[in-house]
Amino acid sequence: MILETNALGQPIGTEVPGWEGAAAPEGTELAGAHVVLRPLTQHDAPDLFEAYGADKDGADATYLPYGPYENVAALSRQITDFSVGPDLFYCIRDARTDQALGQASYLRINPEAGSIEVGNIQYGRALQRTRGATEAMVLMMAHAFDDLGYRRYEWKCNALNAPSCRAAERLGFTYEGTHRQALVVKGRNRDTAWYSILDCEWPALKAAFASWLDDNNFDAEGRQKRPLSHFREEKGVISA
Hints:
There is one protein chain. This protein starts with a strand and ends in a 6-residue tail after the last helix. It has 240 residues and is an alpha+beta fold. It has 6 helices and 10 strands, in the order ββββααβββαβαββαα. It is 27% helix and 28% strand. The protein has one domain: Aminopeptidase, CATH 3.40.630.30. It has helices at residues 45-52, 72-83, 131-147, 162-170, 202-213, 228-234; strands spanning 4-5, 11-12, 30-31, 35-39, 88-94, 100-110, 115-123, 152-158, 174-185, 188-198.
């Protein structure tokens, strides 16, 4: 990167020509070949409770600030809490059956700076490690970059949550460091690992996702022929 300097000889950030900010997400339906994302409502509580019920020991909620849920009413109360906050939550549903599969949200939404985060990700067992799981993340990225004009897309997780860290790296996020003692969650310390994707990195990453999601990359049993990392390398996507 070539640094610019001002008249005083001080290094300054590169100019962002014509920047007027990004648009705030408004809950637009995001539809893919395998999943559809719609704004989360109380209507989704029974279906989501069933989806999360396959996690018998509650392991999927260990690193989340909420859950596991004892009943539909508890999940419904949590959805109410979600709805009064600044974040935009989506329910992820199967595009063919309309079965509820999980949730995800946009948070830390800062249109003025062009920065937005994806988080509050909770996948039912039926969604985990599927094409739909990746597609849901791609749909949210594409909406943020292509439709809303964001410059920075963030992912943060408990630094001890190894599956979430691996997921961020697989999806092409760059690790930026760990904030120590960032939060107290369920009475325990949380160090938070930070990751990001920038708008300049998105076109190549978008092409890699398209190649991985293509039907030609899966056999008759739905197993991938080549991993996403292959296509990221092929498209020149380098994350650290």
